[in-house]
Amino acid sequence: MPALAPIALRYLAWLVGLRILYIGLTAITGLPNTQATIVILASAPAVEIAIYALRKATAPIPFKGWATIWALLMAIYLVIHVMIPAFILPPFRALLADASVLGSLLIVTASTGAMLALFLWLGTRAGGNRRTG
Asked: Dihedrals φ, ψ of 132, to 5°?
């Protein structure tokens, strides 16, 4: 199992970097900024994370190791997309009291979790599947 700190920093850099690039792209081109885009931008780096984890692993990574990596990525996603906005922006916090907004947030979070798992799996296939257990 590779160290989790470099994986966390790598994912955080991807998450923030892609989001900033996409915000700039939407401002320049007028592309829509939809919830589905947020899910894809948060999930796509998992392919590279899986390849990186396979390269850094000294032994096969068991299912529990992949579950730990997935949980780490989900935790980072939740901190960046839910917790920080809730702490910094009182209007966002107030919106969380609305059941429909909370339901939408839960659907987006569940979708992100599923897509992260899918993209991690794709990364293991792209990485040659050398070290999966």
From this structure: -105, 145
3-53 residue pLDDT tens: 899 999 999 999 999 999 999 999 999 888 888 888 999 999 999 999 999
Q: Are the beta carbons of 68 and 1 closer than 8 angstroms?
A: yes
- Residue 121 identity (one-letter amino acid): W
Express each pLDDT in 63-111 by its tens digit.
999 999 999 999 999 999 889 988 998 888 888 888 888 888 899 999 9
SS3 33: coil
Range 52-59 contact pairs with CB under 8 angstroms and sequence separation of 24 or more: 52/2, 52/6, 52/7, 52/10, 53/2, 53/7, 53/123, 54/123, 54/124, 54/127, 54/128, 54/129, 54/130, 54/131, 54/132, 55/127, 56/2, 56/3, 56/6, 57/1, 57/2, 57/131, 59/1, 59/131
